[in-house]
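Sample entry copied in:
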Amino acid sequence: MASTPHKHVRVALGLVALIPLLAACTGGGSTETSTESTAETTPATTTEATTTPATTASSSVIETTESSTAETSTKGSGETSTSKPRMTKEVEAAYKAFSSLAPVELFEQFETCDPSGVEDSFACNGPEVGQFQFFDNASKATSTTQLLTELRSSRVVEDSGSKVVGWTTIGTMSIITVVDNDQGLVLQQMVSSDKIDPEERIYELGLSTPKDTEESSEETSASKN
């Protein structure tokens, strides 16, 4: 059967009427897709929000740890500073009077420093260093210097005129001696020669410096200049 112009017009009008429906269907699909996308992305946003307190808590833990570490360091420093040896009033007084004879490290090892039976003399004792006699007497300083420099049984390791360091051997005993002629001061310690080398003892206590060390220091200073 041959088509008529009126029939073509009706078909065209029908297609035009379908366009709004197709548009509505397309729009509905987009809405569903958008809804689904929103539903899928919402949990992720919630998850990120819930992790924020954990991050904050972690930061708090780090700050607390750092604070504790700082406190521990402060306490450790305090303990270290208080562990340094301290001299009693009597020992400190002896150090001020006889500091030219021996280094402070020796006095720090004394537990007591008391007047002895001889006028202007003190006896200082320490469990590790033993007993020492100190004299504030110009006449004794002069006579002791003569003994150190003139007796055959004496040995001098340092003699600058104002300061003399050495020892005198009497039998199996040695008397280690330091004299400050400028101030009239004397330090003496008696040790057993069989058990202690007096020369090594002098260097060990810091009463004098070995010549090799002095020469090495002088050479080093000269090379720097």
Notes: The chain has six helices and seven strands.
